[in-house]
Every structure is written in C-alpha cells, then in structure tokens.
Design goal:
Layout: H1 2-25, H2 39-53, E1 58-62, H3 63-68, H4 74-78, E2 84-89, E3 92-98, E4 106-110, E5 113-114, E6 143-147, E7 161-166, E8 178-188, E9 197-210, E10 216-235, E11 241-243, E12 257-260, E13 263-285, E14 290-314, E15 319-321, E16 327-331, E17 340-366, E18 369-394, E19 398-401, E20 408-411, H5 414-417, E21 424-425, E22 434-454, E23 462-485, H6 492-495, E24 501-502, E25 510-511, H7 516-526, E26 533-534, H8 536-541, E27 544-560, E28 564-587, E29 590-616, E30 619-630, H9 634-637, E31 643-645, E32 653-656, E33 664-677, E34 682-694, E35 697-707, E36 713-723, E37 728-740, E38 751-767, E39 773-776, E40 785-794, E41 798-807, E42 810-811, E43 831-832, E44 835-845, E45 850-857, E46 864-868, E47 874-879, E48 883-892
Parallel strand pairs: 4-7, 32-36
Antiparallel strand pairs: 1-6, 2-3, 4-5, 6-7, 8-9, 8-48, 9-10, 10-13, 10-47, 11-12, 13-14, 14-17, 15-16, 16-19, 17-18, 18-21, 18-22, 19-20, 22-23, 23-26, 23-27, 24-25, 27-28, 28-29, 29-30, 30-33, 31-32, 33-34, 34-37, 35-36, 37-38, 38-39, 38-40, 40-41, 41-44, 42-43, 43-46, 44-45, 45-48, 46-47
Length: 893
C-alpha cells in the first residue's frame, strides 16, 4: 500500500505539471503584460516586469505560477512570494503575513478596492479586519501583488503592507478564451487516523467580446472545491503545574518539580470543506479615451466538522505521587473527586462564510490628464451554529508521561475508566449536558475613490502629479445566542459507539466515540422533558455593532528622468468610530441589560517619499520612507459586555473591547538593490527595512471580579486590548532570486530556481498587569525567518516543480493574553513551532487542447505544533495534517 501511494504521488505530480502546461498555453495570446503568456518563464517575466516598473517595493506572482502549484486556495500561491508567509488552519492557508506582520496589519483589495471580511470574534485571532484567504478560489486573479511600501494613493492601514488581486478581463487576451480544469484525489492518512479521504476541484474560465465594434468584453469564471479530512489533535493545557516534595502544587511556575500537564485533551475532527465561487467582469471601451469596468463576485465557503473530544482535566488542588522528571500519578483529594475528571464530548460545528459584492471603475484620458472614479459595495456574512453533548466522570487517577514530547495519560483503575455508565451528563452553564450556541456576523463595506493625474503613467517622463480622495464606510455587527439543558437520565453507556478511534497516535490510547444515531434517539426522547435555559449574560456580552468612517485626501508629485525617479506626497486620513453594545446592571440580585454607546475619532498626516536610481540598464536601487497606520481590530474597539468563557466555572474569562484604543503609527524605511538577469527573465534583489511602531496593541489580561450571570461575581481573568507605552521596532533583510539555468547544456537548460527569504529582529516592550516590564522579540504572529525555495523544470511537453516553505517560531496571537496577567504567568505565551512544507507538481501536455496534471501538497505531512515556557520548552498542542495528491486534466478551446 505504501509503495502504491508513492507511485500514485509521482504519477500525480507528473500529470498535474502537464495540465499546467496546457493551462499556461491557454494564456499564450495576450495583449498586456499583466496576463500570463505561456509557461513558468512567462509568468516569472511578467511578475519581474511588474516589480521593475512600480515605484513601491513590490513583488508579485502571475496566474501561470498559481496554476502550476497544488493551489487549493490563493494562500498556497501567496506563500511563494518573497517576504510572504501564511497562517495555516487545519490544513489550509487562512491568513497572509507580509514580512512577518499578520493579517490585521494588512489591507486586502480586488483591483484596488477593499472587500468585506467574514471575520468574527470567536474565530482564530478574529477581529473583523483580517481576510480569510480560504474563501477565495485559485483562479481569481491574473496576478497577485504584494506591496511592502506605501504611496499617498494607497489606504493608510498598511503597516505590514497590502495584497491586491488583479482580476483578468476579456480585453487582456488577443482572442476569446475557454478553459476548464478538473482534479480528483485523496488526503492520505493512516487508517487509524481516518484513512484516505477525497478531495476535488473544478474551474471554468470564459471570455467573449461582442458589440458592433467589439467594444464590450465579458469574463465569467466559476470554481468548486471540496475536501474531506480527519484531523487528530492533542493538547496538554494552556498552563502547567509544579509540585513540592509532598505532592502538592506549589502554585508558582518553575518552583518545585515539573512542569506537568494540566490536561490531556484529545480532539479528532471529521472535517468537510467546500468552496464555491462565481465572478463576472464586464468591460466597455466606450471610446479611445473612456473605459468602464464593472465586476461582480460571490465567494462562499462552508465547513462542517464533527469533533470527538476526550479531555482529562487536572485541577490545581490535585495531588501527584511517584513523580519523576517526566512522569507521575495524578490523584484527587479524598474530599474532592472533581480534582481529576474526564469528559467525553460530541461537538457538531458548522462554519458558513459568504462574501459578495459589486465594484465599478471608470477611466477617462484627456491629453496628459487621466481621471479615475471607483465605486464598490461588498458584504460578508458568517454563520456558526455549534451543538455539543457532554458526559463526565470525576474521581479518576492517571499516570502521566511526557517523555516523548507529547503527553500520555494511563488510567490507574482501568475498570473505572471503562465504566461508560459512570460518565453522566454535564451540569451547569459552563459544561452542560447539551447546548446549542449560534454566532453570527454581518459586515458591509461601501467605498468611493476619485483621482486626477497628470503625466503619471509608468513610462511618462518629466514632472507629473496626482491628487484625489475618497472614503470608505465599514459596518460590522455580531450577535450570539446560547441555550443549554441538563438533567437527562441517560449516560455515555446509552450513546457510545462500539468502536473507538485513535487520537494523535494509538500508543497513547483510543477515544470513546459517541454514536450520533444513538444520541439523536436519546435527545428525541428526553430533550423536551427538561427546561431550556437561555444564557442571557453570554448573549449580551458578545453582541455589538460598530461603524467606522474613513475620509481621505492626498496629493503627490513625481519627477522622472532617464535614470532618476523621485516621488513624494502627503495623505490625510480622518476616522470616525461609533459603537453600540450592552451593559449589565445588577440590583437586588436582578440583572438588566441596557444598550450603551461610545464614539471616537482620530486623524493622521501620512507623508511618503520614494527615490529610484538606475545604476545600469539591469540594476537599480530604491529608497523609500512612509508613515502608515494600523487600525485596531474592530472587536478590540467595539463596546461590548465581553466574550465570556465559562469552560472552567472556577476561573471565568471575560474578553471585552476598548473604544479608547489608538491606532498604531508606523514610520517605515526601506532600501533595496535589484539586478535584472537574462534580459528580464530572472532577477536578484536585496532589501533592508526598518519600522518604528508607536501605540502597538496587545491583549492584557488581569484578575478581576466577573459577572457570570444573575449578579453572581466570580474572580477570573479580564482581558482587553491596550496600547503599549513604548515604541516597537523591527529590522529586517529580504532576499529574492529567480534564475533559469539556460547556461547549462542539453536538458539541464530547462531547469530553474526561485529562492526568497526574510529575516527580522523585533523589540516589543510591554507592561504586564502587575506593572512588570517585559520585551517580546516578535509581534503577534510574526516569524523571525521565512524561506521559500522552488526548483522547476520546463520542457516542450513536460513540466515539473518542487517547492519548499519554511516558517520559523512565532507567537500565537490569541494566547498572548495568557502570559500578560503577571510576571509569574509570562511563560504561558504560546508559540507555534517551526514548520517545513513541501509541495510538488508535474504536468504533461497531451496535445494543443488537453494537459494531464498531478499535484502533491504537504508531502512532509507537516502539522501545527505549539509550545510555551520561558524557553519555549513546554509542548502544548500537536495537530496532524494529511498529505494530499490530486490527478486531473485541463482543457483549452
């Protein structure tokens, strides 16, 4: 079976590369530089030409490059661009990072216009601004552009940079196009972890010109993608314990023997994802001087997960015996069986994201003047129902072992552990027997831009200038509802499956599994017999609305001579923010919730200057300065009672907004040296950058009394976003190298390579809740090193490519607040461990129309692993992600 998989993988890689060749040939007739002509060489040439012509520091990737990799989404393509990394979530790229700055620092646009994001407070690092790459199809763009410096005509929210997707149109080709592609394959896993699961992808792209003078052009594209996979996961808790000689918890990190885990959390996701897209572009060339483009789009992503959980929890008062450096026995106190408990849970989750919109652009040329108008409206919705059923048993004892970088819990009393009738339905709001919760998000963007430019085209020389302005209204609302029920008489024995599944590995044991058919029978019988309790406190604490209005005006001038280009300008942005939420008031034991509102405003002048000097016909040097801002997350600014987490009833956690947050203000300095090789077919570049960021934002957790409902106050952790007192700084270096080995003899001349890397150093001073000063060596989600290497072969019929991506240590943003409550808890900041991923592709052109193709993705089987600790030495979570192989065919007519 293993040998068969290897051969299938190799064959798949070959077939896919072939199909890429046909797809590339489908683009071989083009009239503009932005659209791919043929093959990897043309794709790289177009991206290099785009970089060469821009004033900003920019890198790009062309459509052919997207087509030739195993690109299930645009994130797979973006991570091939110099300085770009992606945050993976359950096997798919979710967010982009530019030079280590995460998606909250980045603006994402379609043809230069922003789109609404289905971002939610309950999602990974959610905040309302980051764009989910997994919602976009891989055929969305003719070119993806990553801008690392800013000019006055660009949105000021770009501390990290901006990503723009250039959408192709009918006039980008010399003749009408019709292209189809389809791929089928498997996610490859061991049978013990779910086995092989299917994955499929199909795309269509059509252009037509029409009208008496063919003045109209229509582009239509559609795509469908589906993936099934089993995702095993192991966690050992977001903190750790250390014990004294008597076996009692010292309550202090690094004092006593340890660290020991506080949980053994097994997750097993049975996950299915689908993505659908429709996009249309209507171009009208009304005259030689007037052109109008209208674009409509729909992107939908749906994810269904059945998650089986098995969680052994160790309370802070539990005792330990027979302790060694890596093992011991956890036991409850005689008077408190709840010190050690095990939960078995079924968790049904649905994530439904939709993004749709309409945008239009008109350009009018009057001599050396060019006038432009852009309008856009977009909407993003997010719907996330979650249903959980939980059973628990107290009073167990476990032997633990952490010697293999994971965590194994072995029950001391196997008979008690396997007594399914002893696992009874959960009680209370924090861990009920059955609950139903609903998250909903609705975001809307309305944008308008106007500009007038004189002598500012790429090839214009002499003096040029441009001025313009516009505005964008961003509205974002979220609501939450939860109800739960307890007291039903059945136990785990009544709903358990006769089979078990492995978690991360079978060596650590197998999970009890809840049979969904049996569970539904029990719910149908008993659910109507017990009262439904509505969690009012949680509903009001997570419901809010926020509106942000940004008004902008700018002006800039440029002087371009034979070898010099100098440009400078100024942008003014004024921002008004209004937010509404609910606040609870408790009197005489009764809590009422009333709407409250807040507002804020801020303005910033943002100067910028760029200079380019051609050292020779194939060498140039760039220098740039710009001031940009980083707006806070919408959820960080929103006025809301807070996101209340009662998973641990003894330690409630409340996350709430801060309407008084200031935006980050960054002064950015860049210098780069560029060599253009082989008449523009290859290139080498070296860039240095420095950023000084004031008002950096981080989550601060502190001890406070929290209303858990009904006026009951429990001491817990209150977390809110704050501005840092001192400036953060980042220094970095970036290299990029593209070279075709045409100097080699024979078949070797068909090889080439693409290498890029970034290294950065950050100082981020913060203060903890107790006033202790600390300095982090990275910003949230910022890897110090990112490396990409691709080696490719391009012959007449056969094309192949292998690509390696490395991402270094980086903080996991949503867990930073774990370590900011005190100096003692600083070790609890969670870090994502370095990751190495390899993708491969192979294609063979059967004839002028058909190309056979094979993709191999994540061939290293790389998952996501996290650690914590002052030296990152304590393992926290291990997530396995499968390899994927797809075989398909593409056609061009």
């Amino acid at each position: 079976m293993a040998a068969a998989r290897k051969y299938m993988l190799l064959a798949g890689v070959a077939a896919w590369a072939m199909s890429s060749g046909a797809w590339a040939q489908g683009q071989s007739s083009q009239t503009v530089e932005e659209i791919v002509v043929t093959g990897q060489r043309a794709a790289d040439r177009n991206a290099i030409a785009a970089k060469r012509d821009t004033v900003q520091v920019m890198d790009a990737i062309s459509a052919d490059d997207i087509g030739q990799m195993a690109d299930f989404s645009v994130g797979d393509a973006l991570k091939r661009i110099a300085g770009v990394s992606v945050y993976d979530y359950q096997g798919e790229p979710r967010f982009a990072s530019i030079r280590g700055f995460n998606a909250h620092y980045i603006t994402t646009t379609l043809d230069g216009l922003q789109i609404a994001s289905p971002d939610s407070q309950n999602q990974t690092n959610g905040g309302g601004r980051q764009f989910y790459l997994e919602t976009l199809p891989s055929n969305i763009a003719s070119r993806m552009e990553v801008y690392k410096t800013s000019t006055p005509d660009m949105d000021g929210h770009s501390v990290g940079g901006s990503v723009n997707f250039k959408i192709p149109g009918a006039f980008d080709f010399r003749k009408d196009q019709t292209r189809f592609s389809a791929k089928l394959g498997y996610q490859i896993q061991d049978k013990s972890k779910g086995g092989e699961r299917p994955v499929a992808q199909a795309e269509a792209f059509v252009t037509r010109r029409f009208g008496a003078d063919e003045q109209f052009g229509l582009m239509l594209s559609a795509s469908y993608w589906r993936r099934e996979m089993w995702i095993p996961q192991l966690e050992r808790g977001s903190s750790a314990y250390w014990y004294d000689a008597s076996g009692k918890n010292t309550g202090q990190p690094y004092v006593g023997a340890g660290p020991t885990p506080v949980e053994r959390r097994w997750y097993a996701y049975d996950n299915t994802r689908e993505r659908r897209s429709l996009m249309g572009v209507l171009d009208w060339r009304a005259s030689e001087n007037l052109s109008v483009r209208t674009t409509g789009y729909y992107f939908g992503q749906n994810e269904k997960s059945l998650r089986n959980d098995m969680i052994a929890s160790i309370g802070s008062s539990a005792l330990v015996s027979n302790q060694t450096a890596t093992s011991g026995v956890f036991s409850p106190r005689a008077t408190s069986p709840g010190d050690v408990a095990q939960n078995v849970r079924s968790f049904k989750l649905l994530f439904d994201r939709k993004v749709y919109g309409l945008q239009s652009a008109a350009d009018y040329q009057a001599g050396d003047w060019k006038l432009g108008l852009k309008l856009a409206a977009s909407r993003a919705t997010y719907n996330n129902p979650q249903i959980s059923d939980n059973f628990s048993q107290n009073g167990l004892s476990f032997r633990y072992d952490v010697s293999d970088d994971e965590v194994a819990f072995t029950p001391v009393n196997q008979t008690a552990y396997n007594n399914l009738a002893a696992y009874v339905g959960g009680t209370g709001s924090s861990n009920p027997q059955h609950y139903d919760e609903r998250y909903k998000t609705d975001g809307r963007n309305y944008e308008g831009r106007l500009k007038a430019a004189y002598n500012m085209d790429t090839r214009d020389t002499g003096l040029g200038f441009e001025f313009g302005g516009g505005g964008i209204r961003r509205q974002h609302g979220e609501n939450y509802a939860k109800s739960y029920q307890t007291g039903m008489p059945y136990t785990l024995a009544d709903v358990a499956s006769t089979s078990r599944i492995c978690a991360l590995n079978c060596d650590a044991g197998q999970m009890f599994v809840i049979d969904q058919g049996k569970l539904i029978d029990m719910l149908d019988r008993y659910l109507a017999t017990v009262p439904k309790i509505v969690d009012t406190a949680s509903a009001y604490s997570r419901t809010f609305w926020i509106q942000e209005d940004v008004y902008a005006a700018y002006g800039m001038a440029r002087w371009k001579a034979d070898r010099w280009t100098v440009q400078g300008g100024l942008r003014l942005e004024a921002t008004d923010v209004e937010t509404t939420g609910f606040r609870g008031t408790t009197k005489s034991g009764k809590t009422t919730y009333d709407p409250v509102s807040a507002s804020s405003d801020y303005s910033h002048w943002m100067p910028s200057a760029q200079a380019i000097y051609d050292l020779a016909s194939d060498k140039k040097i760039r220098a740039a300065y710009s001031r940009t801002i980083g707006r806070p997350k919408l959820t960080d600014m929103a006025l809301l009672g807070g996101s209340l987490n009662l998973a641990d009833a003894s330690l409630p956690k409340l996350t709430t907004g801060n309407p008084d947050l200031k935006p980050r203000v960054s002064d950015n300095f860049d210098v780069s040296l560029e060599w253009y090789l082989d008449e523009g077919k290859g290139m080498a570049s070296l860039a240095l950058f420095h950023k000084r960021i004031q008002n950096e934002i981080y989550s601060l957790g502190r001890t406070a009394d929290i209303d858990v409902g009904g006026g009951v106050l429990v001491q817990g952790v209150l977390t809110t976003a704050v501005n840092a007192d001192e400036a953060a700084t980042t220094d970095g270096v970036e290299v990029n190298f593209i070279k075709y080995l045409t100097f080699l003899p024979g078949v070797w001349s068909n090889f080439g390579l693409n290498f890029n890397a970034i290294a950065s150093k950050t100082d981020f001073p913060i203060k903890l809740a107790d006033g202790t000063p600390k300095t982090l060596d990275s910003l949230p989600g910022q890897p110090k090193y990112v490396t990409n290497l691709s080696v490719f072969y391009e012959g007449d019929k056969l094309r192949a490519r292998v690509a390696w991506n490395h991402t270094d240590w980086m903080t996991e943003e949503r867990y930073i607040s774990n370590g900011t409550t005190s100096a003692a808890n600083f070790y609890r900041i969670r870090w994502v461990r370095p990751a190495d991923k390899i993708d491969a592709s192979l294609s063979y052109e059967l004839n002028r129309i058909y190309t056979l193709r094979i993709d191999g993705s994540n061939l290293t089987g790389q998952g996501v692993n996290t650690n914590m600790g002052l030296d990152k030495e304590i393992p926290v979570a291990r997530i396995r992600q499968p390899r994927a192989v797809m075989v398909g065919v593409s056609a061009r007519f």
